[in-house]
Predict the structure.
Amino acid sequence: HVSRRQFLQTIGAIAGGVAAASLASRLRAAAPTAGTQAGFSVNIAFDPTDPIASSGPAQWAVNHLRNALTARGVAIRPQADLTIRLVRMRPEPGARDVPEALAIDNASDAKFVNVGGPDPLGMVYAITELADRVRLSADVRRALADSQLNAEFPANSYRGIFRMFTSENED
């Protein structure tokens, strides 16, 4: 005799296993194949004296981009087919610095992609955007080389609420 609790635990474990196996097979089928970019190489260049590009958050994002590139079979070396330059950039020429904004520009040729922002978080957002393009694109070379000017600004000037909104009449 199986108790109701044991029955539900067994059925739940079986259903969870079936769902996990189904999801895993769908993800494998939808994911681009690693190693399809054989022969393509990238260099990630930045000025080590630049406080934004050499900041801890930006270097974390660079490592994230390197991992995405190598997972797709792209070689990272100094003399490469494409150079990703991390530079302090304004999202639009002549625009003022907007914190956490990002800009990606292919520098009018397919050999360089300029990536940056006016502050470390903007730089992180730009670099991780490239990492997502690498990870999700069927053709990494095209995803990086054809990077059109992409400027994004935060929708809100504040990321949180700094004071409680209360009502003396309602409290």
Q: What stands out?
A: DSSP finds four helices and six strands in the chain. The longest helix spans residues 4-30.
